[in-house]
């Protein structure tokens, strides 16, 4: 590969804290002074500064947040992505560098938070998986008659066997391989992300994306979304046809129709308003005078 013809050089390793990795960044900067160098991944401000001072222009931030990354599960090592973005952005911007938030986004709202935390760029993997433009082989499941695309982490067994000759015996795989339902062209997903970003800017009063981090305030919450309809009970199935009357019910209905409407009940008083037996027992009767 002729690096001299490339505009960008991306050094992507799982552990950007290795001393040898820092030396590689220094060597590349010396050999290619006019190239844009991206290096990572790290999650702390101190290491972000060291990579920038070693020659990187952009630092990739994130350890373990990816949808097909199992580093946190296999090694117990990781850092909350938004916290890492905030800390590394503060360190990088202080010395004129930039950062990329790498991993952890599941919806356009997460992309907005990454930019709000100070990220200059945001990398997406799982959100773009399954589209025509994404990597991975298109697979047809004969049992379900559905199409899928392969998606795997670069530290997974699949990637290691494909690009690095397999996983060494002394280490474990830190990624997984999944099949994502085929989603067609990526355009509609990109439009959703861009629409969410535009709306976010209007909510916080940012006229441009670069202003977003200056307009945001983060508050820790225990519940962000309303889960009422997340697990709604299944709706009762409608009957295929209205219930048919039984023989006895049909006979009773016919008899009721033939008899006509029921006659009204007699009231206790007749139309003249006199008592039922025609006797008056008021105190003004002559028989009761003394």
Number of domains: 1
Q: How does the overall form come out from the CA principal axes?
A: elongated
State the strand order across the main sheet: 1-2-3-4-5
Radius of gyration: 38 Å
Strand count, sense and closure of the main sheet? 5 strands, parallel
Oligomeric grouping of the chains: single chain
Order of helices and strands: EHEHEHHEHEEEHEHHH
CATH class equals Alpha Beta
In the CATH hierarchy, the architecture is Alpha-Beta Barrel
Helical coverage, percent range = 25-40%
Can you tell me the residue ranges where pLDDT is under 50 for at least 5 consecutive residues? 271-279, 283-290
Could you give me the name of the CATH homologous superfamily?
Aldolase class I
How many angstroms separate the termini? 136 Å
Mean pLDDT over the full residue set: 85
Tell me the CATH topology: TIM Barrel
């Amino acid at each position: 590969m002729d690096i001299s013809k490339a505009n960008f050089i991306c050094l992507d390793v799982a552990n950007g804290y290795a001393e040898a990795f820092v030396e590689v960044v220094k060597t590349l900067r010396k050999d290619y002074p006019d190239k844009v160098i991206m290096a990572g991944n790290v999650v702390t401000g101190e290491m972000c500064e060291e990579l920038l001072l070693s020659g990187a222009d952009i630092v990739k931030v994130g350890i373990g947040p990816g949808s097909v990354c199992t580093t946190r599960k296999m090694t117990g090592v990781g850092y909350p992505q938004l916290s890492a973005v905030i800390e590394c952005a503060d360190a990088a911007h202080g010395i004129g560098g930039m950062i990329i938030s790498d991993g952890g986004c599941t919806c356009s709202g997460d992309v907005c938070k990454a930019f709000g935390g100070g990220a200059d760029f945001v990398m997406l993997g799982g959100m773009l998986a399954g589209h025509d433009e994404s990597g991975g082989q298109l697979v047809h499941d004969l049992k379900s008659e559905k199409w899928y695309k392969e998606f795997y982490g670069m530290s997974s067994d699949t990637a290691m066997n494909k690009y690095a000759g397999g996983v060494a015996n002394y280490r474990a795989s830190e990624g997984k391989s999944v099949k994502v339902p085929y989603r067609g062209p990526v355009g509609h997903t990109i439009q959703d992300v861009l629409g969410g970003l535009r709306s976010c800017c209007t909510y916080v009063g940012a006229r441009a994306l670069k202003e977003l981090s200056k307009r945001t305030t983060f508050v820790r919450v225990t519940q962000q979304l309303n889960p009422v309809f997340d697990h709604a009970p299944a709706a009762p199935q409608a009957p295929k046809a209205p219930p048919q009357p039984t023989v006895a019910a049909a006979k009773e209905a016919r008899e009721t129709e033939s008899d006509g409407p029921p006659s009204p009940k007699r009231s206790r008083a007749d139309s003249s308003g006199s008592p039922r037996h025609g006797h008056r027992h008021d105190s003004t009767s002559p028989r009761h005078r003394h």
